[in-house]
């Protein structure tokens, strides 16, 4: 053990050395090391490489230098870091990567393209037998955490990912970009958690023609993105889990029709399937054209005519859906289960379903309330056309304006049982050219109990149906 006298002498020498070093830095007019920062080798502070973080200086070159020098462990301390070009995180060159802040750092993207592009080399599946060894040795689980990204260019993007395995984005805010998170080409085993993707003029999370299986989106706010909240288009997409999120008003009044959750298989021969949407609040905005909360376009580019061309296998469970033109829009889907949801204020339709098969609606409430939010009673009707082998059981529809509560048209093998169609106008249930179907055990009431012209069930054309109240 060092004696007390020697210890005091050692501390005095160390203090003098540090003072001399600080004085030398001041003398030469610049500092290469921030002594107040963490220098334990675990993270690379971008300010060590000249980034100012003052919101005015272009910090692109300094951050790129940090990437080129240190590679893969970028830390952004408190500040506003303006960049004009994409920061490329090349996993094959850099190895395991993390981009991290403590919630008090903002990256301002003043140029076109993504603020951060994370590029790996994994273009296979998630099958353990199909991995190149370098993916596990240098590329697995790139991490983006604790940052805010702000766009200052109309073509700015928050984060773009290509060829990644186990990309994890958590506690990140993205605002005023084109797309907040842009997924391209091939990715596997994605996690997006506890994020705020807010007020972007494109899409919140965009699966853009990507080959991506196994992705979890949890605990996030995805709101006011004008071209859709969570959107898949084309590609080969499986196993999307959307859980415990607040997804609101992701459509612009000046934009093409979109949805808070839009799954569009029309540009792909293999589509999107195996999707679970559970425990979310999904709502707004009825002022956007043909707005929807959940819209699934299941038909692929080869057209309609066989079971292989209807994509789906979707579970929609335990959500709150409201205040759009169409709450749930299913087009040419197969294998969809909708149960345990409270669904209200569908101004055109509570449900619009066309060309579907093997769809089950369980205990769901389709409600209408003239007192919220506009004082206008929505249509709230359910319309099923050109569909087959579908079941409605325990569904309650309350209030349908100028229409039957449930309309089934040009369909076959539809089973409707133990449903409540309440306060309907004119007709409760309309079957129009429906064949080989069954209606039983339903409670159907009129909006006006004194309306003698009200028909609980009306059947036009069709054959082979069994109808009992």
Automatic annotation (TrEMBL):
Cross-referenced SUPFAM superfamilies: Pectin lyase-like
Pfam families: NosD, Pect-lyase_RHGA_epim
Keyword Ion transport attributed: no
Organism: Cyclobacterium qasimii
Name the record gives this protein: ATP-binding protein
Gene3D superfamilies to which the protein is assigned, alphabetical: Single-stranded right-handed beta-helix, Pectin lyase-like
Alphabetical UniProt keywords: ATP-binding, Nucleotide-binding, Signal
Signal peptide: 1-24
Limits of the Rhamnogalacturonase A/B/Epimerase-like pectate lyase domain: 44-283
Periplasmic copper-binding protein NosD beta helix domain residues: 294-439
Domain of life assignment: Bacteria
Keyword presence, Lipid biosynthesis: no
GO molecular function, one term: ATP binding
């Amino acid at each position: 053990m060092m004696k007390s006298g020697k210890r005091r002498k050692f501390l005095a020498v160390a203090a003098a050395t540090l003072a001399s070093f600080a004085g030398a830095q001041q003398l030469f007019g610049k500092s290469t090391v921030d002594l107040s920062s963490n220098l334990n080798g675990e993270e690379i502070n971008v300010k060590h490489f000249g980034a100012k973080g003052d919101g005015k200086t272009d910090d692109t070159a300094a951050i790129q230098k940090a990437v080129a020098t240190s590679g893969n462990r970028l830390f952004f301390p408190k500040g506003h870091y303006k960049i004009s070009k994409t920061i490329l995180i090349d996993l094959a060159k850099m190895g395991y990567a993390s981009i991290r802040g403590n919630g008090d750092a903002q990256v301002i993207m003043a140029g076109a393209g993504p603020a951060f592009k994370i590029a790996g080399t994994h273009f296979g599946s998630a099958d353990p037998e199909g991995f190149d060894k370098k993916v596990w040795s240098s590329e697995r689980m790139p991490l983006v955490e604790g940052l805010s990204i702000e766009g200052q260019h109309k073509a700015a993007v928050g984060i773009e990912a290509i060829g990644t395995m186990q990309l994890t984005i958590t506690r990140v805010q993205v605002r005023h970009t084109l797309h907040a998170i842009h997924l391209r080409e091939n990715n596997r085993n994605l996690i997006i958690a506890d994020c705020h993707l807010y007020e972007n003029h494109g899409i919140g999370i965009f699966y853009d023609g990507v080959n991506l299986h196994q992705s979890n989106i949890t605990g996030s706010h995805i709101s006011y993105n004008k071209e859709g909240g969570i959107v898949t288009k084309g590609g080969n997409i499986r196993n999307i889990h959307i859980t415990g999120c607040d997804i609101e008003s992701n459509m612009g009044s000046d934009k093409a029709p979109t949805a808070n959750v839009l799954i569009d298989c029309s540009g792909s021969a293999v589509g999107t399937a195996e999707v679970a949407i559970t425990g979310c609040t999904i709502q707004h905005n009825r002022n956007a054209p043909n707005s929807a909360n959940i819209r699934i376009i299941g038909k692929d580019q080869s057209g309609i005519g066989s079971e292989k061309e209807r994509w789906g296998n979707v579970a929609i469970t335990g959500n709150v859906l409201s205040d759009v033109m169409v709450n749930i829009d299913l087009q040419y889907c197969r294998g969809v289960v909708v149960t345990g949801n409270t669904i209200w204020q569908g101004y055109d339709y509570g449900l619009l379903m066309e060309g579907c098969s093997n769809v089950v609606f369980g205990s769901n409430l389709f409600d209408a309330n003239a007192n919220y939010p506009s004082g206008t009673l929505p249509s709230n009707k359910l319309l099923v056309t050109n569909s087959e082998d579908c079941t409605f059981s325990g569904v309650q529809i309350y209030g349908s304006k100028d229409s039957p509560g449930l309309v089934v048209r040009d369909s076959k093998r539809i089973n409707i049982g133990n449903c409540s169609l309440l306060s309907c106008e004119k007709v409760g249930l309309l079957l129009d050219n429906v064949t080989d179907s069954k209606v039983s055990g339903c409670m159907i009431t009129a909006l006006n109990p004194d309306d003698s012209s009200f028909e609980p069930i009306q059947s036009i054309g069709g054959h082979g149906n069994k109808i009992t109240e």
